[in-house]
Amino acid sequence: MERRAISSVATILLLFLQTCPASSVLPIHHCPASSCGNTPNISYPFRLSSDPPNCGDKRYELDCENNATMLNLFSGKYYVHEIDYKRYTIRVSDRGVVEDTTCSFIPRYFLYSLNFSQNIIGPGTDLLNLEPFDVPTIAYFNCTNPITDDPRYVKVDTTRCGSSGHIYTVLKDSSNDFSVMDIKVGCQLKVATFGNWGTTKDHKNKKNVSYDDIHNMLAYGFGLSWLYVICQDECGEGKGCSVINESSSQIQCDQQNCRYIYGSNGTNEVTYDCGVSGLLSILSTVIGYCIGVYKGIMQIFGVNRARSYDGIDVEIGKVTGRYVLPYFVVRFVLGVVAFIVLLIYKWGRRHTSNYENIEDFLQENTFMPIRYSYKEIKQMTRGFKEKLGQGGFGMVYKGKLRSGPLVAVKMLSKSNANGQEFISEVATIGRIHHANVVRLIGFCVEASKRALVYEFMPNGSLDRHIFSKEDSISLSYEQIYEISLGVARGIAYLHQGCDMQILHFDIKPHNILLDDNFIPKVSDFGLAKLYPIDKSIVTLTAARGTIGYMAPELFYHNLGGVSYKADVYSFGMLLMEMASRRKNLNKEAEHSSELFFPLWIYDQLSRENELEMEDITEEKNDEAKKMFIVALWCIQLKPSDRPSMNKIVEMLEGELESIDMPPKPSLYPHEVIQENLTTNSDQTLSDDSIGSTSYLEESSVNTLEKYSAS
Question: Per the residue annotation, which of 51, 506, 524, 567 is the catalytic one?
Answer without folding.
Answer: 506
